[in-house]
Task: structure prediction
Amino acid sequence: MAVAEADDVLITINEKLDSIVGSHSECCIFRVRDALRNVNDKSYEPEIISIGPYHRNKPHLQMMEEHKWRFLKSRRDDELRHCVAAMRSLEEKARRCYSEPIDISSKDFVTMLLLDGCFVLELIRKFKIYKDPAQLALNGPRQENTENDPVFRMEWILATLQRDLMLFENQLPFFVLCKLHEMIEPPGQLDQLMGTALEFFNDLLPVRGEKRQLSAPRADNIKHLLDLIHRCWSSLNPVHNRDSTWNHDTVDFIGSSTELAVAGIRFEKMETVTFDVVFNDGLLQIPVFVVEDRTESYLRNLIAHEQHCGNASLNIVTDYMAFFGCLIKSVEDVQTLSRHGILRSFVGDSEAVCRMFRTMDSCIVGPGKNLHYAPLFKKVNSHCDRCLNKWMASFQRKYIHSSWGIISILAASTLLLLALLQVIYQIKCAG
Result:
């Protein structure tokens, strides 16, 4: 009896072990953890399209399913046959990329890879024509305009697709896109694919300014589209802001923008597309940060991706939001940064922007071991701690920011001037 029970236990254990999907190192597409999702569930949910298995068959996403088939219809029969065979060969490898077993039949999973992958590639290709109609003559036999395509005719659809296709849970393994691209396009054009994909997502980047040339990573190192975005945009971060010696005992967080302004810190916007922040001689230079309807979702999904990378040196978005979390604690802080052109909001009043930055704190699990802005924090705090700066800050708090204080200063200055004139007059009379 005991032996039979032991055998049953062993059978159950073996069945469970057989169901484990690959090794952890192969997983690259995860579910967003509840601690993040519970704060703002909508930031991680697709609005109009499902890519991959996690949101497949949700009723509100069916509108775009027919459009996927419409994009696929442009493929020739021989192309489809070779693409189906290629997706079959990648099925098991693709399944292992998801962090949980995907309860979809082999036929449906292969169809999903083909349908979703071809849609993404066709959308990116059409976007290039949409942005530059001159490209129409360079696209071989598939010379169709985008004017009659509702995706490009209605701007809200394109804007929502840009948002949905970068969501952490809404991804296909990048090698699936690469394989389909090789089957459909001329060989040796993966760099072009990555460049066009980055251009497709460019409007989402909240840090605005002068464009810089991005160096595309190797295609075989990229996990999915969100990873491509993260790798290229985080590479804009300058090395000099990194500090491998960071710990909680040696560096304090900086004050809010209002507190820094009172302490004599001056703010200036930088017209550059980087995550760099420069502090020198009391001047804090920060790139322009644009807040629009998709910004919170974009940032939250990049941070979710960073939390699953397992590499603290890559947490540039998390660290940048920690920096802004220090600067923005109140509506007055938002207004301070807005006055200097550093914050530009398209989401409503200052309270809405302040609320967004406050709730972003829930994404951040404390400062990482390699906090990028630790040297900056040290320099700012050192500047604020100097005796003269402390006196100036105290003076401004007591007098400059008070109407009665200003009156007192004017009165005292007037009396001092009158006393000085009286002394000068008496000296002249005595002479």
In short: The mean pLDDT is 83.
